[in-house]
Amino acid sequence: MNNFIVRTLTGIVFVATIVICFTNPTAMVLLFAAITGMTVWEFTGLVNEHKGVQVNMFISSVAAVYLFVAMAGYNSGFAMGGNVNGTAPGAIFIPYLITIIYLLVAELYLKAKDPIGNWAYTMMAQLYISLPFSTLNVLAFPTFGQYNMLLPLSIFVFLWINDSGAYCVGSLLGRHKLFPRISPGKSWEGSIGGGVLVVVVALLIATLLEKNMPGESSLSPLGWAGLGLTVVVFGTLGDLVESLFKRTLGIKDSGNILPGHGGMLDRFDSSLLAIPAAVVYLFTLTLF
């Protein structure tokens, strides 16, 4: 019972913090920059305990935070400076590239037992965590200099609804395992139930926006439903990817920073695939 109360209170604070931060662009950037760094720190700490791998936790985490902030500066237009073309200069990413080059070259001098493993996990931290979080800025700043909380917040709302719907439907009707080798607790029935609930909510959002805030969103009701399904599919895959990661390392939770909810990876695993997938989906819509 005590664990349930702790888990519930942590969940409420977690959701409230995410929602509130999206109401202000500066708060969003600061919070998710911190989340990016903490998640990479957690990830590198876990892999450093596995098979003699030794990743530079500090530099990897700093690089991840910088990439997020640089993406925010680029997409928000904050880094525009005197660029006559009206877009943020790509030079803002040069320090990040230098850091990545350093992390690769440093292995030549460290005489590590498994330099290939070090390289692989170092790059994985950036590709699996830092880059997906950074693309959140593409959703938050769809136009240079203009902040819109609707799209990035909707990704997390869809993920939360999907998790809740999948859990409830799966607990009541779950019979067929979705991916028993990696996550025996997930069922097809739960996944479908969560997906249906997300589509319903997506259509409701589209209806409310059209009625109360016309012109606020460029997505049609069908477009919103497609976004919801995209988040459901890739959010579930993101959850499975993290489950495979933890099974490979032989751990139950990625950490204990969030009482009753595990670590940062445990809380944001779904978003690590859902966010970039949503970006691809939305850019695809603009092409057709």
Describe the protein in words.
This protein is 71% helix and 3% strand. By secondary structure, the chain is an all-alpha fold. The chain has a two-stranded antiparallel sheet. α3 (57-76) packs parallel to α6 (115-134). The chain is globular, with a radius of gyration of 20 Å.
Descriptive keywords:
12 helices; 288 residues; single chain
Tell me roughly what share of residues is in helical segments: over 70%
Radius of gyration: 20 Å
Portion in strands: under 5%
The largest pleated sheet is described as: 2 strands, antiparallel
Say how many strands there are.
2
CA distance, first residue to last residue: 52 Å
The coarse silhouette is globular
Q: Roughly what is the average pLDDT, rounded to an integer? A: 89
Category by helix and strand content: mainly alpha
Strand order within the widest beta sheet: 1-2
- Regions with little confidence, pLDDT below 50 for 5+ residues: none
| Total count of helical runs of at least 4 residues | 12
Outline of this structure?
This protein is mainly alpha-helical and 288 residues long.
List the SSEs and their pairings.
Blueprint (H helix, E strand, L loop, with lengths): L1 H20 L3 H23 L9 H20 L17 H12 L1 H4 L4 H20 L1 H5 L9 H24 L3 E3 L3 E5 H25 L8 H29 L14 H5 L2 H17 L1
Helix pairs in contact: 2-3, 2-6, 3-4, 3-6, 6-12, 8-9, 8-10, 8-12, 9-10, 10-12
